[in-house]
Specification:
It is built from 17 helices and 13 strands. It has about 425 residues and is an alpha/beta fold. The longest helix has 17 residues. The radius of gyration is 21 Å and the shape is globular. The two termini are about 40 Å apart. The protein binds uracil (URA). Uracil binds next to helix 9.
Length: about 425
């Protein structure tokens, strides 16, 4: 087989066989297929799509490039969650310790920033010393000891996803249902959790623009989970405006800390509870959603979720003095609050523009391997539906220099829209699939 023939076949809209998909995935992972052919192939997949069978074959081929952890050797049932990607989406930083604090082990494999969306690994690595490249032994022993673990793709766990992910991030090949489904599900299957909650985002700041696409992605991932003998459920949730206040690595870690200490923004707390209650229910740590919600609320209130977060940071080598005293984190060079230029009801805070601006400020990558500036980002102070007067604080911009600040200020003001008549707040969850 030749890589170029497989690229041409997909370019011409034909269906690839399991052998062809395995050949391509294996070749890219072991380096025999170069980046430029892989970028061309992922673009052909993005443009021409894949059948559910091809997507399943792609997922299993990616899983097959590494090992599959068997978590049942250390815990009876471990749960995992994954978001399809959003702006300001620091949900994992809160729900993982929250659910673990409720007695349900969480074995999680996360990703880095992708396109205009942030990544859990980048956020956690903004805590000095925090390691995400865990070996299999470390993953299992940490899960056994403290009941929660947060790892990235490694040379042994879903290595193909690590390579495709970094390539897609900078080659315009992120927003494709088969590529997203296989990326997420290969990580979930490799990391071994028996029950999975998927958070599929829709809207301006998501890879899925509408309900139909989101439902297709959600159903596909749930079906792949079932084929791999895992339980799964998918929430379809809003990503038209950024989630919570903070967008940017250190800013999001600080917001997660506030939330774990009971001082998080209301809508973000609510979203975390929505995800946590699904994890506790599917993971059989609660009889029903009502009991799960109660447990999650208690763990936030009584400090046990916060304690769990400290355990996670410590176990993975992070310097907990930063999370205990977030004032220790470095700050961006320029931090300034921007006022509203208008009076009215906020009708839009364009999440994609906010996410792209954060990337351009240095919070995300323009090319593979770019170093991040963990300090930069944006605090979005208002939500859609809020009434705001001209001159009220609208957002706080954290930039590395004056040129970046000027670029971002204009774009972020333009990301906001005002209406003279009342605007309904955006819902958090639209649907549940599975
Ligand atoms: N999260 C992932 O892990 N992969 C994607 O492609 C999108 C979101």
């Amino acid at each position: 087989m030749r890589a170029v023939d497989i690229i041409i076949k997909k370019r011409d809209g034909l269906v690839l066989s399991r052998e062809e998909i395995e050949f391509f995935v294996q070749g890219f992972t072991d380096g025999s297929i170069p980046d430029y052919q892989a970028a061309s192939w992922t673009m052909a997949v993005l443009l021409n799509g894949m059948t559910p069978q091809e997507t399943t074959d792609l997922t299993m081929a990616m899983v097959g490039t590494g090992e599959i952890l068997d978590l049942s050797v250390v815990v009876p049932l471990a749960v995992d969650k994954h978001s399809s990607g959003g702006v300001g989406d620091k949900t994992t930083l809160v729900v993982e310790p929250l659910v673990a604090a409720c007695g349900l082990p969480v074995g999680k494999m996360s990703g880095r920033g992708l396109g205009f969306t942030g990544g859990t690994l980048d956020k956690m690595e903004s805590i000095p010393g925090f390691r995400v490249d865990l070996t299999q032994e470390e993953f299992l022993s940490q899960l056994d000891e403290i009941g929660l673990v947060l790892s990235g793709q490694t040379a042994v766990l879903a290595p193909a996803d690590g390579k495709f992910y970094a390539l897609r991030d900078v080659s315009g090949t992120v927003d494709s249902i088969p590529l997203i489904a296989s990326s997420i599900m290969s990580k979930k299957i490799a990391a071994g959790a028996q029950a999975i909650v998927l958070d599929v985002k829709i809207g301006l700041g998501a890879f899925m623009a509408n309900r139909e696409e989101a439902t297709e992605l959600a159903q596909l991932m749930v079906d792949i989970a079932h084929l791999a003998n895992r339980k799964a459920i998918a929430l379809i949730s809003d990503m038209n405006q950024p989630l919570g206040v903070a967008v940017g690595n250190i800013l999001e870690v600080k917001e997660a800390i506030d939330t774990l200490k009971g001082k998080g923004p209301e809508s973000f707390v609510e979203h975390c509870l929505d995800v946590a209650e699904q994890m506790l229910t599917i993971g059989e740590a609660a009889a029903d959603i009502a009991e799960a919600r109660q447990k999650a609320e208690d763990a936030l209130r009584d400090g046990s979720a916060w304690k769990s977060f400290l355990d996670l940071v410590q176990a993975q080598g992070g310097d907990i003095s930063y999370v205990e005293d977030p004032a220790k984190f470095p700050l961006a060079k320029i931090i300034k609050s921007i006022k509203s230029p208008k009076t009215g009801y906020l009708s839009q805070i364009h999440a994609r523009i906010v996410g792209e601006t954060a990337v351009d400020l240095g919070a995300g990558r323009a090319k593979k391997g770019d170093l991040l500036n963990y300090t930069v980002g944006i605090e979005i102070l208002r939500e859609v539906g809020d009434y705001i007067n001209e001159g009220d604080d609208l957002f706080i911009l954290h930039a590395a220099n004056q040129a970046d600040f000027d670029m971002a200020e204009k774009r972020l003001i333009n990301a906001h829209q005002w209406s003279d008549s009342a605007v309904d707040p955006l819902p958090l969850v639209y649907d549940i699939v599975g």
